[in-house]
From TrEMBL:
Source organism (scientific name): Streptomyces clavifer
Protein name from the UniProt record: NADH dehydrogenase
Keywords: FAD, Flavoprotein, NAD, Oxidoreductase
InterPro entries: FAD/NAD-bd_sf, FAD/NAD-binding_dom, NDH-2
Residue stretches making up the FAD/NAD(P)-binding domain: 5-330
SUPFAM superfamilies hit by this protein: FAD/NAD(P)-binding domain
UniProt similarity note: Belongs to the NADH dehydrogenase family.
Keyword check for 4Fe-4S: no
Length: 453
């Protein structure tokens, strides 16, 4: 009898945690495990703002999936672009651009999320996101290059536009990105004697009436005070009306000369979700508390792409798209998958949120672990301690700790690599949101037996 084929899509917190638990708990001959991912590493997403600001190197937050020889999961280098739940086939575009059909008996969808965008003129053409390792590296290069170009320019209008930076999104990603990058430019400008530090202006805007409302009013106000004390202009109840290569128009009518627009206004479930044709909740796959997809035999979903019921909160709440939930869901889902293979009952996912941490760079931070409100150095210790313990390997922990110590002792460096210096990159370039198939294209492929395998 053939071994059951388990296919896991996505190497984020949820997918990797699920795979590792399956490897530890299943006997070698009990099932075949495959993991679909375009990059053979797990990205520690919450630390991307520190990569963008140069505090951490890219390698320190990318944990290799091939490093350990004892793991037996087959890595499929590519991205899932469609699923036929009736034929039990996942359509994959390999990194070579070859499209193949991957049959499965059990499918785990941990496809994560993409940057949520809106129909704003010029947005996808002129904005950068903060969702991938390449985006963080690109933004660092881009921001430093604006200082270099402003320093080289004799045109006052050009200089002004290059030294104004806009971050959209008052959540954790946007707030940390604005704070960390502002700190980078403030330190860097000391080495540019021709540039007036007063010309460098950072703007953080969000359509919501509060900054990081999940922190509560008190810590939200504290974070706002820290940002404004640093010179970051925070505008709430405002969004982008139009984005151009050299200016941004806000919904309140202001027009800002600007060459840098960083868009972090929330996330949306991976476009892969739409290819299944099953029920969704706020764009995420509807699943049971056991993380099964109703009406799709053998399909489980978790993490950012799934609307997992938050039984700890009740009242129809769904789990927020955080690493904390994704990791724990991965473990529970692996146990449920093993239980289904062995004919045992499945368990429901229940987890009470442990709190929130926001690293604003340097000694500035606000944290709310287990409901306890902290700010300053104690909050920074909690924030970095939480992230450090969340790193999966000792190698990653050593690299991150070394980077933190080196930055604290030696300060920032302002070297740029010249990455895509002559070709502006967009959200679509990094996140491949236009790569997915339609349901009709999927069925056309899976209907042909010759394409299977």
């Amino acid at each position: 009898m053939a071994r059951p084929r388990i296919l896991v899509v996505g190497a984020g917190f949820a997918g990797v945690e699920c795979v590792r638990r399956l490897e530890r708990s299943l006997a070698p001959g009990e099932a075949d495990i495959a993991l679909v991912t375009p990059f053979s590493y797990q990205l520690y997403l919450p630390l991307l703002p520190q990569v963008a600001s140069g505090v951490l190197t890219p390698q320190s937050v990318a944990v290799s999936l091939r490093r350990s020889r004892r793991h037996r999961t087959r890595i499929v280098p590519g991205g899932a672009i469609g699923v036929d739940t009736k034929a039990k086939i996942c359509v994959i575009r390999k990194i070579t651009d070859e499209i193949v059909n991957e049959p499965y008996d059990h499918l785990v969808l941990a496809a994560g999320s993409v940057t949520r965008t809106f129909d704003i003129p010029g947005l996808v053409e002129n904005a950068q996101g903060m969702k991938t390792l390449a985006e963080a590296a690109y933004i660092r290069d881009h921001v430093i290059s604006q200082l270099d170009l402003a320093d080289a320019s004799q045109d006052e209008a050009e200089r002004e536009s290059r030294l104004q930076f806009v971050v959209v999104g008052g959540g954790y990603a946007g707030t940390e990105t604005a704070a960390c990058l502002q700190r980078l430019t403030a330190n860097a400008v000391r080495h540019y004697p021709r540039l007036d530090p007063k010309l460098i202006k950072w703007h953080l805007i969000d359509i919501a009436p509060k900054l990081m409302p999940e922190l509560g009013d008190k810590l939200g106000v504290t974070a706002m005070e820290i940002l404004r004390k640093r010179g970051i202009e925070v505008s709430l109840g405002v969004s982008v009306a139009e984005a151009a290569p050299d200016k941004v128009t806000f919904t309140d009518g202001r027009v800002l000369p600007c060459r840098t627009l960083i868009w972090t206004a929330g996330v949306a479930a991976s476009p892969l979700v739409a290819t299944l044709g099953t029920e969704t909740v706020r764009g995420r796959l509807a699943v049971t508390p056991e993380m099964q997809v109703p009406g799709a035999d053998g399909v489980f979903a978790l993490g950012d792409s799934a609307a997992v019921p938050d039984l700890a909160k009740g009242d129809g709440a769904i789990c927020p798209p955080t690493a904390q939930h994704a990791m724990r869901q991965g473990r529970v889902l692996a146990d449920n998958l093993i239980a289904s293979l062995r004919g045992r009952p499945l368990q429901q996912y229940v987890h009470k949120d442990l709190g929130l941490v926001v690293d604003l760079g340097g000694r500035d931070a606000v944290s709310k672990p287990l409901g306890i409100e902290l700010k300053g150095v104690p909050a920074q210790v909690v924030a970095r301690g939480y992230h450090w313990t969340g790193l999966r390997t000792n190698v990653a922990k050593t690299r991150v700790l070394t980077n933190w110590l080196l930055n604290a002792i030696a300060g920032d460096d302002f070297v740029r690599t010249g990455f895509q210096a002559r070709k502006p990159a967009t959200l679509r370039d990094f996140e491949y949101t236009d790569a997915y198939l339609t349901p009709e294209q999927i069925h056309a492929r899976t209907a042909s037996p010759a394409d299977h395998g």
